[in-house]
Amino acid sequence: MAARPLLRQRNLVPTLAASCAITTLLYPRTTVHAEAPPPGPPPQLSRKPIYDDPPPLRSQPQAQLQPPGQPSSSSSSAAPTATPTSRLASQIRRARLTLHSYSSAGETRLNAFMSALLTHERSFTSTLASLAPPPESRERLMPGALYVLVAAMSGSILTRNRNILLRATVPFAVGVGAAWAVLPVTTRNVADLVWRYEERVPVVAENHLRVRGAAVQGWREIRDRGKRVKGWSDERVREGRETVEGWVRKGR
Prior knowledge:
Layout (H helix, E strand, L loop, with lengths): L2 H24 L46 H5 L6 H48 L9 H18 L5 H19 L1 H15 L3 H50 L1
Helix pairs in contact: 4-5, 5-6
């Protein structure tokens, strides 16, 4: 009987502890949330972040007023240094600009040369077309040119045993005369073309006019003398015929 109070005291302590635990679990004093952060400052992370931190934004100071004659020290100190890549890019750019300038100059010269060549070709073809006789003249170049060539060769054959002056001038004179007789229109066109080229050299043009004037004057004198000789011979023939007719009448 004496041990019963002791046993009761021993059973009382666990019963009180169990009842306190049940009360704390069933009726808590503070509300606990599963996703809420703990109160107080956030704990420091021991792991490194994946991305780098962005650079802090620097507040640009206001530009100080300086005299216009003095350069800014901040601009001179903040000049970027040239890197090997930038120097290589500048050299490549300079080489490309130089090559482009040379290619442009070559293309310009080639275009000018081709334009001049086409201009000379057009001038040559138009000049040849202007020398041809018109269709209404009924003048053929092929047989006429052959006749002129034969006449010049005949003049060379006639003067083959003469001096050098006659051998040089007579075939040319005979050929020119045959050309004026056989191909008058074409010869006139050639003469006009030669005169246009001679006008570019005043000395040659003056000598040509002088020689042409002397030739025309000589031809006129020869023609006048021929007319006088022909008139004199006709007069002598007429007088001789009258004399013979008078003798015939007297003889009857």
